[in-house]
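Recall that a protein's primary structure is simply its ordered list of amino acids. Everything else, from secondary elements to tertiary packing, is in principle encoded there. The following example makes that idea concrete.
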Amino acid sequence: MSCHISKHGRCFILAYVLVCFHYPKIQAMRPDRLQIKEVRDSVKKYIHFVGDLADDKPHTAYDFRVMINQDKAECFMQEVENSTELIFNFQALSPSTFTSDGKISAFLYILEDGTIINNTNSVRRGHFEMFADKQATYGICFVNMESNSLILTQISLDIYRFGYVRAFRKTVNDESTLSMADKIYRIIRRLGRIRTDTVEVRSSIRYDFLTTTSNLNMINNFSALSVLLILTICAFQIRAVKRMFADKSTMV
């Protein structure tokens, strides 16, 4: 028997665990109402923090696919706050052919001043990782300069807002609450990495499938062409032999 727990259910369980963790302290500090109020406030802030984690406020992930036409570019913009980490992963899924190469170029830049932060040329897959130390709008563009046909591209973006976590740390003074919140955030970050790796593996499998299908179609086309060429040569040989015997009969 399986059981599924919603986001809010997970928040309630985590909050309940923390309350149980603090309960002996609350019992020991029962005569001091001020300290009990501080513990209660820290628990409330922790519950709000866990709720925000469940709502993907400190971490946001995007996964999508686009078709890039020949000699065209596809650009995407994202406004980020201070102390934000951006992780881009992309992979060209269209297989290479005799007439085109399934590779793309990409560059990451700041929209306000046009500063190029990172770029790469003629690759099948790439990875950009940067830490934004100021609030700005960042853009990433993918260019198809190698292929004379459309290129299907898988793109994933992970946004980690460390500023949100730092703001939470400034509002809480209880070390146990901070320690538990940091551990939960590290778990969420690792889960985000696992999700990104899973998307990359699935993209690689998709690329291998498309490449195998393309190669199989190419082999079938060459086989059909070879059979047609052999039959054509046989027809010419039969015709030449018939003509040779016909010439000998007229000579006799």
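Residues 1-31 have pLDDT under 50 and may be disordered. DSSP finds four helices and eight strands in the chain.
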